[in-house]
Design brief:
The complex is a heterodimer. By secondary structure, chain A is mainly α. Chain A has one domain. In chain A, 67% of the residues lie in helices and 2% in strands. A two-stranded antiparallel sheet of chain A has the order 1-2. In chain A, a hairpin with a 2-residue loop joins strand 1 (102-105) and strand 2. Chain A is globular and about 60 Å long. Helix content of chain B is 69%, strand content 0%. Chain B has 4 helices and no strands. The radius of gyration of chain B is 25 Å and the shape is flat. The chains are: A mainly alpha, B mainly alpha.
Chain lengths: 336, 119
């Protein structure tokens, strides 16, 4: 019986997370266009339903009914698999992110996370790195010079910032003493948020910068650089395959913000205590603020030059994140 | 029993793969198929691509990839150390700082050699 309950619980949670995520991704595309529109003093989409609320649905239907062009010289299997890798990796990231506390459900304790892995954070980095294959293979297999250049840039940029990203969370790990994301959140309960409590504010900023670079968003959107590479790695993609890349990017954006919330901003812990079955509200609110911040960036900053991006990652972020490990270690040794 | 915590992970990965395959197959079935040589040629704003596409890649990218391997290994070593940092205490701290210092010497070397420059 226990097994059956466990399976039901898992299926419900997986379905819920998947549904909410897809809804978020769909409406994030609309939100981004709306917010960017307002920043640039225009309306953004407002034709489909009031406030353009039907736009994501219309876009989705259109993507399904468009012609699916595979270039003659493309490496067909890789060309088809690449967007699948991207979206699968982006969705799988949400397996370990806790979005709420433990709730009581018909006398059964249910924790609001899909899998409470002991290696939570390692899993996140492993799967996030897999997502890079989608971008690189997609650009390489389409046999297009723009695509290839976008893919090369993406590969070099993503692995460079992955280093700084992995190092920037090291301070939190040293304080928490565990890779389990649920335990990391529990330790931050009652305003002991890592970003403010243990001098982890600068790592938090580093994490956000590296996150921007990891998901290739402005000012680091080199792989797509519309002005020079037309569209970068996804230039040859059309129809639903393009939509999959697009959705993967937004799902990844939500994931980066959700992990930042979990590690640095206390996850579902809030200014005042809500009952456990509502604790996800804080998590959603914090993640939403970070997502808004990421969209705001896009409306504010121009794109950097490629050499500037690489120099910034290697010569600035990498030494500083190493210095943070030293500083956090010293702080912990001195204060015990 | 320990492995059972990975079952939900398999569920969500499976759902992700299913969704990806479903989306691609559905758009293949629903969309029109009117391919012609011009449409299937590489997109380059109306120009015909000159020369081979998959040619030699600038050496810079290889150097970055190699440096990444070195430093990512360092990160891999740091993870278990960070998790048991409290138990190791001062000894662990000094040891890891020596390790990072040795790698830092290499980092300064490649910096001075100009491996991180993009002109």
């Amino acid at each position: 019986m226990e097994l059956v309950y466990f399976l039901i619980e898992t299926i419900v949670k997986v379905g819920l997370v998947f549904g909410v995520l897809m809804g978020c991704v769909a409406y994030l595309t609309l939100a981004e266009r709306k917010i960017l529109g307002r920043i640039q003093v225009r309306y953004g989409p407002n034709r489909v339903w009031p406030f353009g609320l039907g736009q994501p649905i219309a876009d989705g239907i259109k993507a399904f009914f468009k012609e699916d062009v595979i270039p003659a010289k493309a490496d067909k299997p890789l060309f088809v698999i690449a967007p699948m890798i991207s979206i699968t990796a982006a969705i799988s990231l949400f397996a370990v992110i806790p979005f709420g506390g433990v709730i009581e459900f018909f006398g059964r304790e249910v924790s609001l996370v899909i899998a409470k892995l002991d290696i939570g954070l390692l899993y996140v980095f492993a799967i996030a790195s897999l997502g890079e294959y989608g971008v690189v293979l997609g650009g390489w297999s389409s046999y297009n010079k723009y695509g290839l250049m976008g893919a090369l840039r993406a590969a070099a940029q993503m692995i460079s910032y992955e280093l700084a990203l992995a190092l920037s969370v090291m301070g939190v790990l040293m304080i928490a003493g565990t890779l389990n994301l649920v335990e990391i959140v529990q330790q931050q309960a009652g305003w002991h948020w890592n970003a403010f409590y243990h001098f982890q504010f600068f790592p938090f900023i580093f994490y956000l910068i590296c996150g921007l670079a990891e998901i290739n968003r402005t000012p680091f959107d080199m792989p797509e650089a519309e002005a020079e590479l037309a569209c970068g790695f996804n230039i040859e993609y059309s129809s639903m395959k393009f939509a999959l890349f697009f959705m993967a990017e937004y799902a990844h954006l939500v994931a980066v913000c959700a992990i930042a919330t979990t590690l640095f901003l206390g996850g579902w812990d809030g200014p005042f205590n809500l009952p456990p079955y509502l604790s996800w509200i804080w998590f959603v609110a914090k993640t939403g603020i970070l997502v808004y911040f990421f969209i705001w960036q896009r409306g504010t900053f121009p794109r950097l030059r490629y050499d500037q991006i690489m120099r910034f990652g290697w010569k600035f972020l990498l030494p500083l994140t190493l210095a943070n490990i030293f500083g956090t270690g010293l702080y912990m040794v001195l204060t015990g | 029993m320990m492995l059972s915590q990975y079952v939900p992970v398999l569920f969500i990965i499976g759902l992700g793969i299913f969704f990806a395959v479903f989306a691609v197959v559905a758009s293949r079935l629903l969309g029109p198929r009117r391919i012609n040589p011009a449409k299937a040629s590489p997109y380059e704003c109306g120009m015909i691509t000159l020369g081979p596409t998959h040619q030699a890649i600038p050496i810079k990218y290889y150097i970055i990839a190699m440096l990444f391997l070195v430093f990512d290994l360092e990160v891999v070593f740091l993870y278990p150390w960070a998790v048991i940092f409290r138990t190791l205490g001062v000894f662990g701290f000094v040891e890891m700082m020596i390790f990072i210092f040795i790698l830092l010497v290499g980092f300064i070397y490649i910096w001075k050699k100009g491996a991180l420059e993009w002109e």
